[in-house]
Amino acid sequence: MAESKRQLAMVMDLNKCIGCQTCTIACKRLWTRDEGMEYMWWNSVNTMPGRGTPRDWEQMGGGFRDGSARPGKLPTRRDFGDAWEFNHQEVFYGGKGDKVHLKVQGEEPDWGPNWDEDQGGGEYPNAYYFYLPRICNHCTHPACLEACPRRAISKREQDGIVLIDEDRCRGYRFCMEACPYKKIYFNHQKKVSQKCIFCFPRIEQGVANACARQCPGRVRFVGYRDDPDGPIWKLVEHWKVAIPLHPEYGTEPNVFYVPPIAPPRFDEQGNLDESSRRIPDEHLVSLFGTPVLDALKVLEGEMAKTRGGGKSELMDLLIAYQWKDMFGGFDRDPATIEWEREA
Ligand code: SF4
Ligand code: SF4
Ligand code: SF4
């Protein structure tokens, strides 16, 4: 098993995510603009309940069960959805006025990176949905690393970031089969696998990840897991309100989520019904396991405190009045840094 001395991590507060995709675009602009990367979204945000990206990724296997590797499916490019070409030229410059409309060129798409946006679940008046942002989890027990026969994937000793060495990669894609979160993409031009790099060139300069720093919802906390003064330790270890997605996949993810709390339910007469939560517990348990129920209780208890006029250290931390408090010391201004640029 790969071991690192320290582990960087991210906590995402699902109560604050507005599904704006700023994180997705921040990552795209920075890291996936080269050839063959058109269809890649190292950061994705999907509506839950939903089939996600790649389509039905939760049913594709991979990871570990009882310590042994579990077979996994290789997601196809169609499962992710392509970067579609549109008839912009014809619509904007073809001189055909309103006789033509924007449409996808070539084969009709049937899935994409955010295909089931805002569909959600439940029945009126108790419909519900929430957004689930995902990146590579930089797992403590990375299935991708163990599956690679070329030893092209490594976990950095100093901070636990999981990286693919493109010079060693031969494009076998066993990592894609093995990753249970399906967070690896294949570059069909370069014939190598590629994925989120946790913005390590920024991290090395003391700057938080682009997806975290750009997030207008202040959803994402960054830092070392063992830093008792940082937000990660406080949310994961101390308050225990941040928990990993699908812990049963056995890879020990280092991205954690504060579970979402929806408005109360209504009963058939239209009165508030607080006997159960609007987002069904079963749904959240299917995503985060039973620890989500304790996390919800803690969150609800602290929310009640503040409603009663009291103070809650946890609520203050989650609200994040000062953005710098979210980044465990990774708060340097990127504009003050002399960045190396590729020729
Ligand atoms: Fe590897 Fe997948 Fe874990 Fe990322 S999420 S470290 S790609 S197993
Ligand atoms: Fe992209 Fe960096 Fe966020 Fe990873 S950490 S998804 S590379 S912006
Ligand atoms: Fe927007 Fe932040 Fe949610 Fe990304 S994580 S969709 S940037 S609110």
Structure write-up:
The protein is of the alpha+beta class and 343 residues long. The protein has one domain: Alpha-Beta Plaits. Helix content is 23%, strand content 14%. The chain is built from eleven helices and 14 strands. A four-stranded mixed β-sheet has the order 10-1-12-11. The protein is globular and about 60 Å long. It starts with 7 loop residues before the first strand and ends in a 24-residue tail after the last helix. The site of one iron/sulfur cluster (SF4) has 13 residues, from helix 1 and helix 7.
Parts with pLDDT < 50 across at least 5 consecutive residues: none
Overall number of structural domains: 1
CATH class equals: Alpha Beta
Largest beta sheet: what is the strand line-up? 10-1-12-11
SSE run: EHEEEHHEHEEHEEHHEHEEEEHHH
C-alpha termini separation = 37 Å
Report the major sheet. 4 strands, mixed
Multimer state:
single chain
User: And the CATH topology?
Assistant: Alpha-Beta Plaits
Kindly list the characteristics that best describe this protein.
single chain, 343 residues, alpha+beta, Alpha-Beta Plaits, 4-stranded mixed sheet, two-stranded antiparallel sheet, 14 strands, globular, binds iron/sulfur cluster
In short:
With 343 residues, the chain is an alpha+beta fold. Helix content is 23%, strand content 14%.
